[in-house]
């Protein structure tokens, strides 16, 4: 699965540290949001679970899920105005997002992309 999230960081925290903490929280390793033992076969991922996990990371002031799909959002493609309420992996599928460019340079096993809230003009 592929997710793009826009994050706003509160003024008491460094953006680089908060982004790193979010990436750690959404990792596929033990204890991470995308750990293999976190998801049952056929269990859908509700967008609310993503927000819940994001707001548990210290320093996250705002968050907006921009993309939640089985296919990646292409660079430069317009972001849709709404995302689905859930990602359904199918009856025999499992929620997976390894986000490991070193082992999976084409993102076939999922991508988790963060971007900062755009600066106001």
Question: Any overview of this molecule?
Answer:
The protein has about 120 residues and is an alpha+beta fold. It contains 2 helices and 5 strands. It has helices at about 15-25, 45-55; strands spanning about 1-10, 45, 60-70, 85, 110-115. It is globular and about 45 Å long. The mean pLDDT is about 90.
Main attributes of the structure:
2 helices; globular; alpha+beta; 121 residues
Q: Which descriptor suits the 3D outline?
A: globular
> Helix-strand pattern, N to C?
EHEHEEE
Distance between the termini: 33 Å
Total count of strands = 5
Helix/sheet category: alpha+beta
The largest sheet is:
3 strands, mixed
Estimate the strand proportion.
Answer: 15-25%
Order of strands across the widest beta sheet?
3-1-5
Spans with pLDDT under 50 lasting ≥5 residues? none
Q: Indicate the percent of residues in helices.
A: 10-25%
What gyration radius follows from the Cα positions, in whole Å? 14 Å
**Count of domains:** 1
Q: Roughly what is the average pLDDT, rounded to an integer?
A: 89
How many helices? The count is: 2
């Amino acid at each position: 699965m592929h997710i793009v999230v826009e994050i706003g960081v509160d003024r008491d925290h460094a953006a680089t540290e908060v982004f790193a903490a979010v990436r750690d929280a959404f990792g596929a390793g033990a204890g991470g949001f995308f750990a293999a033992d976190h998801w049952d076969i056929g269990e859908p991922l509700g967008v609310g679970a993503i927000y819940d996990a994001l707001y548990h990371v210290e320093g996250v002031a705002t968050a907006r899920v921009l993309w939640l799909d089985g296919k990646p959002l292409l660079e430069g493609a317009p972001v849709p105005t709404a995302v689905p309420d859930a990602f359904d992996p199918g009856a025999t599928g499992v929620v997976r997002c390894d986000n490991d460019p070193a082992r999976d340079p084409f993102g076939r096993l999922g991508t988790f992309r963060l971007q900062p809230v755009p600066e106001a003009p």
